[in-house]
Design goal:
5 domains; DNA Methylphosphotriester Repair Domain; 16 helices; four-stranded mixed β-sheet; 44% helix; single chain; alpha/beta
Length: 360
């Protein structure tokens, strides 16, 4: 006997509820007959009366029915594409300039007013043009220092006027002093210890300040290679017995992740990266957030890509739980230690913390 499988399609009442709650990425459009326009469900305009609403699958179908695109929510994405091109051009211009371009110069280049350009840039990058340019200089400085250039030469080459200005903002720029960045951990001792864990091998590394590396699910040589790349000139001690208690804490968390993994940490990154990492630590076991939600939690709702990059460069997985961040559709997306590990970690956390749910 053949069994028919039916798909429950959303009713107009279901679609109307998504309009009322301003559901993003809903996959349909609604039109207002009294206004003659069609919108995305998350349009910021006041909600119309239900009797004046019609639903459409695509812009072309809505336009064939005689409706025009809303200028506020831009359902066809035309204004968004133009803005993205303007912002990409501005970013490329900033990247190519030795000095930080003025807001007036950037606005004139874009063809928009100063205020309109600033809002457009901030909406698409999550930061002001000035902050973006300072980030470019910080990356230049970090790249030059990692190659071993003299601090004075690296500072000048990155576009800073003087070393004193760099040292004044050292934590915001690099998360460490320029000298420390140049030395790549030279003069420091990184204590390490391996152990077997549910996902294979586990490596923990720590400085005198705290844990600076946690990696797992790879062979010993791959894990150690990752750590050494981060601290290229540091002295590394292997199988250090002083880390026994720390390793036991990590293994205990992997066995039963009911509480956050609370360890003293030595995190080195830009101010933005550290803000993202601190925010990740606020997500409790059994819960998840999307990258967009995490960006909003950091106070930079538009900086979704920058937040994702910060998650990808997290040096202390588990203690900074980047595995609790998922795609907008709930997809597990990428994970430094493998998506199967991410899935297993989340499933165990949800099983042990059944009252906690993913944020909607």
């Amino acid at each position: 006997m053949n069994h028919m499988h039916t798909i429950d399609l959303p009713t107009d009442d279901d679609l109307w509820q998504q309009v009322l709650t301003r559901q993003a990425n809903a996959g349909f459009l609604y039109a207002v007959t009294t206004m003659g326009v069609y919108c995305r469900p998350d349009c910021p305009s006041p909600r119309p009366l239900r009797r004046n609403v019609r639903f459409f699958a695509t812009p072309s179908v809505a336009e064939a029915a005689g409706f025009r695109a809303c200028k506020r929510c831009d359902p066809k994405g035309e204004r968004a594409r133009i803005a993205q091109a303007v912002v990409r051009d501005a970013c490329a211009f900033i990247e190519a300039e030795e000095d930080i371009p003025s807001l007036d110069a950037l606005a004139a280049r874009s063809g928009y007013s100063r205020f309109h350009f600033l809002r457009m840039f901030r909406d698409h990058t999550g930061v002001t043009p000035r902050s973006y340019a300072e980030g470019v200089r910080a990356r230049r400085l970090q790249a030059a220092l990692s190659k071993g250039e003299r601090v004075a030469d690296a500072v000048a080459g990155a576009g800073f006027g003087s070393e004193s200005r760099v040292y004044e903002k050292t934590s915001a720029l690099l998360g460490m002093t320029p000298g420390a960045a140049r030395r790549g951990g030279q003069g420091e001792v990184i204590r390490t210890a391996f152990a077997d864990c549910p996902f294979g091998r586990l490596l923990v590394g720590a400085t005198d300040k705290g844990v600076c590396f946690i990696g797992f699910a790879e062979p010993d040589e791959a894990l150690m290679g990752d750590l050494r790349r981060r601290f290229s000139k540091a002295q590394v001690t292997v199988n250090d017995p002083s880390l026994a208690a720390t390793v036991a804490t990590v293994l205990g968390f992997l066995r039963e992740p009911k509480q956050a993994l609370d360890l003293p940490l030595d995190l080195r990154g830009t101010a933005f990266q550290q803000r993202v990492w601190r925010t990740l630590q606020q997500i409790r076991p059994g819960e998840t957030r999307t990258y967009a939600q995490l960006a909003a939690m950091t106070g930079n709702p538009k900086a979704i890509r920058a937040v994702a990059r910060s998650c990808a460069t997290n040096p202390v997985s588990l203690a900074v739980p980047c595995h609790r961040v998922v795609g907008s559709d709930g997809d597990l997306t990428g994970y430094r230690w493998g998506v199967p590990c991410k899935q297993a970690l989340l499933e165990k956390e949800r099983r042990l913390n059944p009252s906690r749910k993913a944020a909607g």
